[in-house]
């Protein structure tokens, strides 16, 4: 059992991020049983759900002449463009059907504002608009977070870096994460998380 002050945060274990989904992460479905087994170890459990309106600005299809996985400059900085994914209410936005979500205390949706993407569970991609998760965790007395889910090098990494910046003690359980790995982004993510004091556990 983890300490009462440690919360488990399950990031974006959704149909579209699993094999067969719109933005499939290799092996994304393999982590589901292991995450289910970790749930009972934590008093506080938060699940996040990537939740975009149709036509979201992070979709390549919203930008003429752009293809998925190209980067563009947005008013808030560089943004990778993605295939359409996790559209609100679509089957791909649902949690993986094998994921036990009933034990969740909080399901936090993010990325629901069309002009701005949100990888992190704490801040949108302008790095300053807050999702409210920090306040929720602090009001519940949480000082440490353990992160698992998809994808290691995007939403998990951004959430871990923000949590560390906010002063939480942060562990990422890499064996319960899978990566997109665009041009070395996994190695870069692991290095930046380690550099920020995030504990990388297997
Ligand atoms: C994610 C790309 C776009 C993620 C979400 O969950 O890592 N990646 N939207
Ligand atoms: Zn997304």
What does this 3D model show about the protein?
- The mean pLDDT is 97.
- The chain contains four helices and eight strands, in the order βαββββαβαβαβ.
- It is globular.
- 19% of the residues lie in helices and 23% in strands.
- The chain starts with 5 loop residues before the first strand and ends with a strand.
- Residues 50, 52, 58, 82, 85-86, 111 line the site of zinc ion.
Which characteristics define this entry?
alpha/beta; 6-stranded parallel beta sheet; two-stranded antiparallel sheet; 8 strands; binds pyrazine-2-carboxylic acid; binds zinc ion
Give me the number of helical elements.
4
Beta-strand content: 15-25%
Roughly how many Å is the radius of gyration? Answer: 16 Å
Give the distance, in angstroms, between the N- and C-terminal Cα atoms. Answer: 17 Å
Tell me the major beta sheet: 6 strands, parallel
The total beta strand count reads 8
What bound compounds does this protein have? Answer: pyrazine-2-carboxylic acid, zinc ion
Shape: globular
Tell me the quaternary state.
single chain
Indicate the percent of residues in helices: 10-25%
State mean pLDDT (0 to 100 scale). Answer: 97
Helix and strand run: EHEEEEHEHEHE
**Low-confidence regions:** none
Structural category? alpha/beta
Read across the widest sheet, the strand sequence of neighbours is 5-2-1-6-7-8
Topology:
Layout: E1 6-11, H1 32-38, E2 44-50, E3 71-74, E4 77-80, E5 106-110, H2 133-139, E6 144-150, H3 152-165, E7 169-178, H4 185-195, E8 199-201
Parallel strand pairs: 1-2, 1-6, 2-5, 6-7, 7-8
Antiparallel strand pairs: 3-4
Helix pairs in contact: 3-4
Zinc ion binds next to loops.
């Amino acid at each position: 059992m983890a300490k009462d002050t440690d919360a488990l945060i399950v990031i974006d274990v959704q149909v579209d991020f699993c094999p067969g989904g719109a933005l499939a992460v290799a092996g994304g479905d393999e982590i589901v049983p292991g995450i289910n087994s970790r749930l009972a170890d934590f008093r506080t459990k938060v699940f996040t759900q990537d939740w975009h309106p149709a036509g979201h600005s992070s979709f390549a299809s919203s930008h003429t002449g752009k293809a998925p996985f190209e980067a563009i400059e947005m008013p808030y900085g560089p943004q990778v463009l993605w295939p359409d994914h996790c559209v609100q209410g679509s089957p791909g936005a649902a949690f993986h059907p094998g994921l036990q979500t009933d034990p969740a205390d909080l399901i936090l949706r993010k990325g629901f504002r069309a002009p701005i993407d949100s990888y992190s569970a704490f801040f949108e991609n302008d790095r300053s608009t807050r999702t409210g998760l920090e306040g929720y965790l602090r009001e519940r007395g949480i000082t440490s977070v353990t992160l698992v889910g998809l994808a290691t090098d995007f939403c998990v990494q951004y959430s871990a870096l923000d949590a560390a910046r906010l002063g939480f003690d942060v562990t990422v359980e890499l064996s319960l994460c899978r990566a997109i790995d665009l041009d070395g982004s996994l190695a870069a993510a692991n290095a930046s998380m380690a550099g920020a004091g995030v504990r990388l556990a297997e």
